[in-house]
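Dear colleague,

Thank you for sharing your sequence with our group. We've completed the structure prediction you requested, and as agreed, I am returning the results in plain text so they can be pasted directly into your records. Please verify that the sequence below matches your submission; if there's any discrepancy, let me know and we will rerun it promptly.
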Amino acid sequence: MSGPQPRPPFSGPYYRQREREARALAGGMTDASVRKQLLDIAEEYANLAQQAEAWERDHPTTKD
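Please find the predicted C-alpha cells below.
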C-alpha cells in the first residue's frame, strides 16, 4: 500500500522537453548501443512526465 505521492521535483513540460532532447540526440547517433541508451533515457523522461502530469492534475493550484 502506498501513501500520498510527493510533489515531483520538476514539471511535466520540463520532462517532456528533456524527452524530446534525448530523442533528438538519439536520432543523430550512428552507434546502435548509444542510440538505444538515449532512447531508454527518453522513455524514462516520458514516464517522469506522466507522473508529474498526474500529480499536477490531482493537485491543481488555485490563483486568486
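Summary note from our side: The chain is about 65% helix and 0% strand.

Kind regards,
the structure core
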